[in-house]
Design goal:
The protein is α+β, with helices and mostly antiparallel strands. The protein has one domain: Jelly Rolls. The chain has two helices and twelve strands; from the N terminus they run αββββββββββββα. The strands form three sheets. A five-stranded mixed β-sheet has the order 8-5-10-1-12. The chain is globular.
Length: 195
């Protein structure tokens, strides 16, 4: 009887330990942005998009407002990604909500400079599945308050190695660097500014 009890306890502990490393279950609820989007970032990850070796923090709730988010879990995948330079008009928490995507998204915010070759440096926040289904979202409630006048980087990639189109809504205090905010700022229109 003691052996059976010990085996059951070991199995329970192992299950809890493994669950801590498993990806989050996707949310199934609708989202509402606190401040309506001023721009829509539309793009596409293709086989020609750059790749990177991505990481994640200890917890999906971790925040590094001083550009010091601690990444400790190394994902073994090297997905394609897109990056967008942006700045904010005020210190209201920013929102980036993946509105539509043809793949399971993951999004990041980095302080400038963002270096895909050194992805554990300058991190602010990361999200996997806080949007609808497997879409990512950073909401005002996450508390990502940034400094006006500084440049930041929004990075979007797939959870694995998928490719496809995506659309991201932002809060009204977000503007892409060097561009005039429009209703539809596509990657093809702005990528040349950041090469």
């Amino acid at each position: 009887m003691k052996q059976v009890t010990a085996c059951v306890l070991i199995m329970m502990i192992a299950t809890i330990a493994l669950a801590a490393d498993m990806p989050k279950d996707p949310d199934r609820v609708d989202y509402v942005m606190d401040s309506p989007s001023r721009i829509v970032i539309a793009g596409e990850l293709t086989d020609n998009s750059p790749t990177w070796h991505r990481w994640r923090p200890v917890s999906y709730e971790d925040l590094g407002l001083n550009c010091d988010l601690v990444f400790n879990s190394d994902y073994t995948t090297e997905p394609h990604y897109d990056q967008y330079c942006f700045n904010v008009s005020d210190s209201t928490p920013v929102e980036f909500v993946v509105d539509d995507a043809g793949f399971d998204t993951v999004i990041y915010i980095y302080c400038d400079p963002f270096d895909a070759g050194n992805p554990t440096v300058n991190g602010v926040y990361m999200d996997d599945d806080d949007g609808v289904g497997l879409n990512s979202a950073i909401f005002a409630a996450n508390g990502v308050t940034l400094t006006p006048g500084n440049d930041y980087w929004f990075v979007i990639c797939s959870y694995s190695s998928s490719i496809g189109t995506y659309s991201v809504l932002t809060s009204d205090n977000v503007a892409l660097c060097g561009t005039v905010a429009t209703e539809d700022s596509s990657w093809s229109n702005v990528k040349g500014l950041f090469k």
